Amino acid sequence: FYCDTASAKKPVVLVFGDSISAGYGMEQEQSWVSLLQRRIDTDELGFQVINASVSGETTGGGVTRLPKTLELHDPALVVLELGGNDGLRGYPISKIRDNLRRMTEASLEHGATVLLIGMVLPPNYGRRYVAAFEKSFHEIADEADVQLIPYLLDGVTTDRELIQRDGIHPTAEAQVLLLEDVWPVLRPMLQELAPAS
């Protein structure tokens, strides 16, 4: 049985998120997801990154969109980065948690490994809501036994220079920092899943 490995389809890392992963306000190749593909290629890990992130996406939209996306791309690993827009709109925590749980379970049932990325909210949303929102990501990660990065923008939001004029979205310069948040967690996961060469 002969298989040309060069033309064999590389396993897929599916990034399923909102504007933070969609590269809002910059060229696509500047986004942390594009930088992730370059890092994977440099380290010769043999994965293809598919960015299925949509600016403005909520967990409700994600639940609707995910089954078809899983079917289409058949990912080995799903990076789930949703919930920020729900929180900013003050959606009920129980609904956000339920949607994140459904997406995590759907990805696992499809046979993918999951990396869940959390988000934090500005303090003006009230201490109780903010704490419950952040806790949701930890609860789902614990329940489903998946890896969690509690907060993707750690260190970015404290530096005004790294945030776009809208006060929400990281700049192109900040993208490498987002990748540095993800990479130490993601790399060992990829190494574990890497196709035998």
Describe what this molecule looks like in 3D:
With 197 residues, this protein is an alpha/beta fold. The chain has seven helices and five strands; from the N terminus they run βααβαβααβαβα. Strands 2-1-3-4-5 form a five-stranded parallel beta sheet, with helices on both faces. β4, α6 and β5 form a beta-alpha-beta unit. α2 packs across α7, α3 packs parallel to α5 and α5 packs parallel to α6. The chain is globular. It starts with 11 loop residues before the first strand and ends with a helix. The model has no long low-confidence stretch (mean pLDDT 91).
Give me some keywords for this one:
197 residues, five-stranded parallel sheet, 45% helix, alpha/beta
Question: What class would the helix/strand composition place it in?
Answer: alpha/beta
- Record the strand order, biggest sheet: 2-1-3-4-5
Low-confidence stretches: none
Helices, by number, come to 7
The major β-sheet equals: 5 strands, parallel
- Oligomer state equals single chain
Mean pLDDT, to the nearest integer, reads 91
Q: TL;DR of this structure?
A:
The protein is built from 7 helices and 5 strands, in the order βααβαβααβαβα. By secondary structure, the protein is an alpha/beta fold.
Secondary structure elements and their pairing?
Blueprint: E1 12-17, H1 19-22, H2 32-42, E2 48-51, H3 59-73, E3 77-81, H4 84-88, H5 93-109, E4 113-117, H6 127-144, E5 147-149, H7 175-193
Parallel strand pairs: 1-2, 1-3, 3-4, 4-5
Helix pairs in contact: 2-7, 3-5, 5-6
